[in-house]
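Supplementary notes for students who missed Thursday's class. We covered one full example, reproduced here. Read the sequence, then the structure, then the short commentary at the end.
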Amino acid sequence: MSVLAPLGGTPSPAPTPVIPGFGVGQSCVVKNGQFCAGWFADNFGSRFAPRVVEHIELTAIAVGVGMVIALAAALLAHRQGWFETPFSLLSAFLYTIPSLAFFELMVQVTGINRFTAEIALVSYTLLILFRNTLAGLRAVPPDALEAAQAMGFSRRQTLLRVELPLALPAIMAGLRIATVTTISLATVAAYIGAGGLGEPIFDGIQTGFKTEFIAAGGLAIALALAADALLVVAQRLLTPWARRRRA
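Structure (token representation):
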């Protein structure tokens, strides 16, 4: 097929079709290599960076809300022992629901949106955070509580200045597990349009493009490792007495 030339000229050949995103030096992409570093570097800012931000937002909201609910429940169970069993059963039931099934069920109630994803992600954090927080509160030495009482501390002062600080290592351990778990589960949230790194993972699976799939999966793993490392550092800064005791 040729393109008509201006009056009096000769027809010129049609331009060669160009596949979007493929150009000179893109042989790795054309061959669908295992990992095309050049393509990843060129597309990181537009394709992956926004998904990383969305993934962090999904995780931070879920863990933050879950921590507030679990802490309140653990404090109530610590004071009122009867509350532990019903909340443990509810959170354990939510934790055992397969993620895809949970997201699909919630879609029928709240629709396809990020709010739906957050409900499911928060539910998965409750069991871990509740049990660790309650275990930390119950592990506070009786001598410390007696000393606080002897110093005239009120119940609120004892909680804030004695019980919660001493329970912090157990709470942080639960927070680390919940955060890493949520980062993993948040990749599935893309199934209902919540964004995050699950979006390029699903795209890579559907198109068969190895680089996109591997890059997105690698970023999710790196994000989980970075979050866990930051929480370890935060725990050491918040509990300096634990380091001295070990030494």
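Commentary. DSSP finds ten helices and two strands in the chain. The radius of gyration is 26 Å. If anything here is unclear, bring it to office hours.
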